[in-house]
Amino acid sequence: MHHRPPPPSTTKISTPFIILATTIFSLLLILSFSFTSSPPPPHPHPSLFPNHQPHRLLFHHNPTNPNDQNTLLPTPPSIAYLISGSTKDTARIIRLLFAVYHPRNQYLLHLDRKASQYERDNLAIYVQSVPLFKAAQNVDFIGKADFVYPIGASALSATLHGASILLKVSAHWDWFINLNAADYPLVTQDDLLHILSYMPKDLNFVNHTSYIGRRESRKLKPIVVDPGLYLAEEDEVFYATQKRELPDAYKLFSGSSSAILSRKFIEFCILGTDNLPRTLLMYLANSPSSASVYFPTILCNSRKFNRTTINHNMQYASFNSRQEARPLNSDDFNDLVMSGAAFASPFEANDLILDQIDHELLHHKHNKPVPGGWCLGDNETEKCTHWGDAEVLRPGPGSKRLEKSFVQIFTNDTFRSSRCVYE
């Protein structure tokens, strides 16, 4: 038996129908894409940023010339904060975030991989529930966490990772500050922004010295292997049996891992064409003290930046006989105030001195933002529930302490001679 082909008329009818249906479907698909677009990115709340005006103050009003403050004061700067912590540090990070918060600034939070994903999720959920943070659109998280070991290069790697994200997130900040959960401010952000508004934006505040004695050599010559750079699970840092000589292609400088660094310098380290930042990073990959050496060494070996370096990181610390920073407590409060520093470290979690700083220096509750010129609330305890212009600053006594400290630094006879000195 032979099968006959379908009648020609059937083929002639079905083919145009298929073509027509396909064409109509494609047209509808194109039209649907044409009229369906993703929502525009959210913008900060207009009450916080109504316009970009010069720096305005809420004190020292001059009745004979009411406009003199607006015409003479520089625009307030913006600071990018990287706030880092580990497991069980969620509450400390939140407290520190409130203590250093200002709508003009940018914030990046990092809980390292020693913390559980549950802790990271809880931190994100809490921060996203705060109306102020949502309105200002200036608090972000590092989703893919890094391991951070106190010895080795993983801490430096995490800092550079955070700085690179902050460069991408915002093009408007002027200085980068890396804080740990054990750090805490001694002045309000209005105090700090007010004083920094008078500073050249290329200045870098970092402790540094080129002196390398026996103690320093023990931190620089050993070779270590940091598992945070290559292992997915937590492991121990181990030391190699051999040691290496110090480099002679550049001079090593050591200092503090905490610093106030200019945006231009951060861009130089991460995006610049000079190879020194990458060369030094490779050398320090197996060094025990990478974080305290990297930034001072680049600053002082670069002609572009070695004259922008101030030998003070604006952070107070007290050291024991082994030159290790000891935890601060209430007995240190007067020294903290008299130091004129912007920050201090380290503090133990929930130590009573933190409550004292909140009450006497920052004038806020630990779970509320520090009141500034942008806070318009009538209630003393809820001042920052109503928002005004973030360009308006209300400096307090902390700005006077900072001003005095900077005057002492800049008028010191050894100010110029102490910058990037080869000892």
TrEMBL record:
Q: Where are the transmembrane segments?
A: 12-35
Recite the UniProt keywords alphabetically.
Glycoprotein, Glycosyltransferase, Membrane, Transferase, Transmembrane, Transmembrane helix
Primary location group: membrane
The keyword Transmembrane is assigned to this record: yes
Record protein name field: Uncharacterized protein
Q: How does it sit in the membrane?
A: Single-pass type II membrane protein
Write down the superkingdom of origin.
Eukaryota
Q: Where is the signal peptide?
A: none
Q: GO: which molecular function terms?
A: glucuronosyltransferase activity
Single GO cellular component term: membrane
Specify whether Glycoprotein is a keyword of the entry: yes
Q: Where in the cell is it found?
A: Membrane
